[in-house]
Predict the 3D structure of the following.
Amino acid sequence: MTNEPEPGGASLKLTTAAGTLTLTGFVPTLWQTANYAGRWYDDAIGESKTGGADFRRREILFAVAAAESYLFEWVRDVVLKFDYRAIALYFPPESATPIRDKWKHIAQTLASDGLIDAAPNFGGTTWADFVRLVDFRNGLLHGSASRPYSTSISIGLPVPTMWDLDGMPPGRSVRIVFSLIDELNAAAGTSNPLWLIPV
């Protein structure tokens, strides 16, 4: 396929094997998107199938990445129904809002804007579990998991500790993110994605 804009930008000529289409007085906007939430979720499930601290470490990272990607993709495609220009209202391009704040603020704003039925309960067990999971993810990525520890000198505990990782059951991170996404869709009146399977 070739794309040949006419002089002045008022027409677009598309040539394919089937023929030529010329659009005059209309300049389409072409968007490219990617979906990663389901892939991150599958990665987390893969890590959940084996015991050990290294598998829990990767499961945590992948599970939180799935939750963060899902929130964006859900708003973009399900709530805004592919109105890509409206995305910046909920996800300003240069914003570095932490995922915990983003998840709550965006769900509550969408509910107050009348775009979803309601925001989920941010005072329940699922939310508390997710906040702790994000703390673990942050600790792993930002180095606090590597903090030295001694029983005789207190300079702060690593987050997560090796005991946290060793003691976390396989699949725990995946189940937390499953519940988080499931509760969001239940409150919002939207459907779970096909890739969201319980572990």
